[in-house]
Design brief:
Spore Coat Polysaccharide Biosynthesis Protein SpsA, Chain A, alpha/beta, globular, five-stranded mixed β-sheet, 12 strands
Length: 336
């Protein structure tokens, strides 16, 4: 059976950009009088200091998912380090926040808010994939990895999920812990808030509430639009936060849970060997980092996420990517 056309969306930010840093500082200062002390509480500098991950993420998509129609990179007045020929060909498009996010919600420094607007990209395919800018592909994956067909012939998404109750439990334990114990992070709080909303407003049971694993996601525009129609008041509030907050509501948990509920999506578990997650902030020695690089160089994983690569490791990163066949720009193929 023929699969639908599928686009890929990346979100990208360069936190070292002085203009971006100034906008962030100004926004935090403006919100502070409104009681925003808990906003952006757990930021690590490495989260927003890119070392060309997006370059290799795009190259990996073109090499291993050649059936992707168009790659869209969503960013805030920045030009991502993508091969110029790809941008010139139209194979890769840069989409500014202002193109998809109403002015009253700008500027935005929280991924969960940005994610709630991705379906508004002009010309985006009905079914689309989504990657953070630190995600990439390690070997070929066909469209059947992300979408199949129901008995009616309509696309049925295949969701790589985790149960929402896990994060909700962590958030609850955090709220009951003594004050000197660190709070659950905003990612966990956002999923816990989504769990509450989905149970109280939609009537989902705990077994129906899920969120995606931290690898490539797949979404449907129709589901996103229905969420906007049915939960508009909630979205107005959470989209107005501008920054990370323990009050945010996880868009990815809403979208995955309701895709499964409304569209009978398939919930699946990808084998551990299919996924590789490396968080370089956890590797405190040169020896530990070198072990991580060797693991990346040799990994057969199809889905890869690389968090917190230090700036002084950019050259080592480039060497490993070259060894994986991603060291040179790919010749863009023409749009059909």
């Amino acid at each position: 059976m023929t699969h639908p056309e599928i686009d890929l969306v990346f979100t990208y930010v360069d936190g070292a950009d002085p203009a971006h840093a100034a906008r962030l500082a100004r926004t935090r200062q403006e919100l502070a009088p409104a009681g925003a002390a808990q906003i952006f509480p757990e930021v690590r500098p490495s989260w927003y200091r890119p070392v060309s991950e997006i370059t290799y993420g795009v190259r990996s998509a073109l090499r291993f998912l050649p059936w992707i129609r168009t790659i869209h990179i969503v960013t805030d007045r920045q030009i991502p380090p993508v091969d110029p020929d790809l941008l010139a060909s139209g194979r890769v498009r840069v989409v500014d926040h202002a193109d998809i996010i109403p002015e009253r919600f700008l500027p935005v420094f929280d991924a969960t808010i940005i994610e709630s607007f991705l379906h508004r990209i002009d010309g985006l395919s009905e079914v689309f994939l989504y990657n953070n800018d630190d995600m990439m592909f390690g070997r070929p994956a066909g469209p059947e990895e992300f979408v199949t067909h129901g008995q009616d012939g309509e696309p049925r998404l295949r969701l790589m999920t985790r149960p929402g109750i896990l994060r909700a439990g962590i958030a609850l334990a955090s709220s009951l812990a003594p004050p000197f114990v660190p709070r659950a992070n905003t990612f966990t709080a956002g999923i816990a808030n989504a769990c509450t909303l989905l149970r109280e407003r939609i009537g989902l049971g705990w077994g129906e509430i899920v969120y995606p694993r931290h690898f490539t996601h797949v979404y449907r525009i129709a589901t996103a639009r229905r969420i906007e129609a049915e939960l508009g008041d909630l979205l107005e509030e959470t989209r107005s936060l501008h920054l990370r907050s323990h009050r945010e509501v996880s868009w990815i948990a809403l979208a995955y849970s309701l895709e499964a509920c409304w569209q009978d999506a398939e919930r699946r578990e990808s084998p551990r060997g299919e996924r590789l997650f490396l968080d370089f902030d956890r590797y405190g020695s040169d020896r530990a980092r070198e072990r991580a690089w060797r693991k990346l160089a040799q990994s057969p994983a199809r889905f890869i996420c690389l968090n917190g690569i230090p700036a002084d490791q950019a050259e080592r990163f480039a060497q490993v990517m070259a060894g994986r066949g991603l060291g040179e720009p790919l010749v863009p193929f023409r749009q059909a």
